[in-house]
């Protein structure tokens, strides 16, 4: 479990984080969302122990990153937005070198490296120098490194940035697999559809403050559009022209979506009653609608 507790951070005179608090529970994927400069990376770097907060703390499985960094780090994996590695070293050699910091002897580290390279889709590229890795490959390498201590908490900072669709799918599946294994995952991303696809809960940060924490169910239920979805038992020409009296109609099998519906649900339900209304309800919006509503407010 990752607990961010009242974290405050200033860079010089600029207040970058103000009293940021939230939890990522075991078996939970938490989306971390905010505009550019909102404070996501700073929060993540504080959680990873690479920068110190001015006040507050982050607990990893109950261990303070500010006071017990070594122990806390053992339970934490981190894939940074722009992984920076030694460029002139062969990837597997560098992995073995890093594993040394975790007290893993050379031979064992090499075997572990081969296994993890395969797991993250880098087999065959063990002898390439890191300078010859693409951005996506560097992220996969950072993931392999983060798996060395088999931690149960993960920080993914904009891991999808600059990835091709295959890379995006790979990291989505990694996060979902980790969730199944009851790991705690904090996942920052600008690709809101991806956050929506995997997150259980979303933390919204704006100008250094947490402005909202909501589950995906709460988000979906709170945004209702003027688009009405109706499932009919009988979809006939008459049914469609009846529906068209209320707005533009899209037909997909037995489902009609009346866009910008001018009437209320009961009126449409009555008007279509001869065509067997099996289901009727307003289409709910997604994370993107919610995010814009929140930040424009
Ligand atoms: N080392 C630093 N020194 C001074 N200011 C910094 C430093 N790192 C970050 N900042 C400032 O802190 C604020 C938050 O930056 P941060 O990178 O955490 O935002 P972010 O939400 O991750 O943004 P993005 O979505 O663009 O990655 C910004 O105003 C940024 O300029």
From TrEMBL:
Keywords of the record: ATP-binding, Nucleotide-binding, Transport
ABC transporter domain sequence ranges: 2-232
SMART domains for this protein: AAA
InterPro entries, sorted: AAA+_ATPase (IPR003593), ABC_transporter-like_ATP-bd (IPR003439), ABC_transporter-like_CS (IPR017871), ABC_transporter_ATP-binding (IPR050763), P-loop_NTPase (IPR027417)
Molecular function GO terms recorded: ATP binding; ATP hydrolysis activity
Similarity remark: Belongs to the ABC transporter superfamily.
Protein known as: ABC transporter ATP-binding protein
């Amino acid at each position: 479990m990752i607990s961010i507790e009242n974290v405050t951070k200033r860079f010089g005179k600029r207040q970058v984080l103000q009293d940021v608090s939230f939890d990522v529970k075991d078996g939970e994927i938490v989306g971390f969302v905010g505009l550019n400069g909102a404070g996501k990376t700073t929060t993540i770097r504080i959680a990873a122990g690479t920068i110190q907060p001015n006040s507050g703390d982050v607990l990893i499985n109950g261990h303070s990153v500010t006071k017990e960094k070594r122990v806390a780090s053992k339970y934490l994996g981190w894939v940074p937005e722009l992984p920076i590695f030694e460029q002139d070293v062969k990837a597997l050699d560098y992995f073995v070198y890093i594993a040394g910091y975790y007290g893993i002897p050379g031979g064992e580290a090499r075997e572990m490296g081969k296994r993890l390279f395969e797991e993250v889709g880098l087999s065959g590229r063990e002898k390439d120098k890191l300078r010859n890795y693409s951005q996506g490959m560097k992220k996969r390498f950072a993931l392999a490194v983060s798996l060395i201590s088999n931690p149960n908490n993960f920080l993914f900072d904009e891991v999808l940035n600059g990835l091709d669709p295959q890379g995006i799918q790979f990291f989505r599946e990694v996060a979902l697999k980790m969730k199944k294994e009851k790991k705690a995952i904090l996942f920052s991303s600008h690709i809101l559809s991806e956050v929506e696809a995997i997150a259980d809960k979303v933390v919204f940060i704006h100008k250094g403050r947490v402005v909202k924490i909501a589950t995906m169910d709460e988000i979906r239920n709170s945004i209702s559009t003027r688009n009405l979805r109706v499932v009919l038992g009988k979809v006939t020409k008459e049914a469609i022209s009846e529906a068209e009296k209320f707005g533009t109609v899209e037909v997909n099998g037995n489902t009609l979506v009346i866009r910008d519906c001018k009437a209320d649900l009961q009126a449409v339900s009555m008007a279509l009653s001869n065509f067997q209304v099996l289901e009727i309800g307003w289409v709910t919006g997604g994370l993107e609608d919610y995010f814009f509503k929140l930040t424009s407010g």
